[in-house]
Amino acid sequence: MRFIRKINDFPYSIYESGSILTIGSFDGLHLGHQKLIQEIRDESERTGLPSVIMSFEPTPAEFFQKNPPSRLMRFREKYVALRKSGVDIFFCPKFDEDMQNYSADDFIRILLIQKLNIKTLIIGDDFRFGKNREGDYSHLESVHEILNFKLKKISSVIHDDQRISSTLIREYLHLGQLKNAKKLLGKHYRMSGRVVKGEQLGRDLGYPTANVNILRRKTPIMGIFAIRVHGLNSKPLDGVASLGVRPTFYEGKKPLLEVHIFDFDQNIYGKYIEVDFIAKIRDEKRFSDANSLINQMNMDAMKAKKLLSENLGE
Asked: Of 138, 159, 180, which residue constitutes the final position of a domain?
């Protein structure tokens, strides 16, 4: 997969004959996103034209809102997932004031036709674009024949009578309903990051932890969880994790992911790991003293092992 950040960095040779495009935030790469990606891959294979995913960084929500929703994926995680998806090009221009002020017609004419030379545009049924979100499917439908590109709208994927969306997944994660989130994602919810040195409080309490730098100011999920860790062994490793602000010893503003891997004693500082959240055990809470916290951690570890044994092979 080729990653392109600026439109002027798009080599003409890539899109000289045309391109197959879809556009969206692709936050979480849930089943609805996966359907869109499969559609552009199929069309790309049929036509021999490159498949292109267009997204924005920062997201439009982050640009316009003072308190935007937390991301399901940070940018690196999205990039890695898209690289595995089989698309040819990930085009991710900066969303700024210039982009904000594109009218719907200019967005189509300048970006889609002149710059990307689209031959097929495949979008979800909720796609909006242009200044003040004035552009929609009907707008595209009115011009696509004149501008000589095919247009296809993909209906939302429905699960249990609900439309799959990043918003609904955030809600499930916030409520600790990880199984419901997994059904919409098609996989366990995952965070990744590099293991960094911490204050080693967990080791002093009998539970050495790997502090994972998740590089997030906010997260859709908080609490104590049964988890599996990828990236350290040929097989995932079971453990228990705390994701929060550590209210007993340190109440910070940025969430911290602390992972205790069962029956594991290796120096993994600097390792990049991926953490799958299998089941929620409880919410984070403040304890009156260290002994109370240790007793709870013992119970959390037992609960995590039980939950993981019930989810073997998942």
From this structure: 159
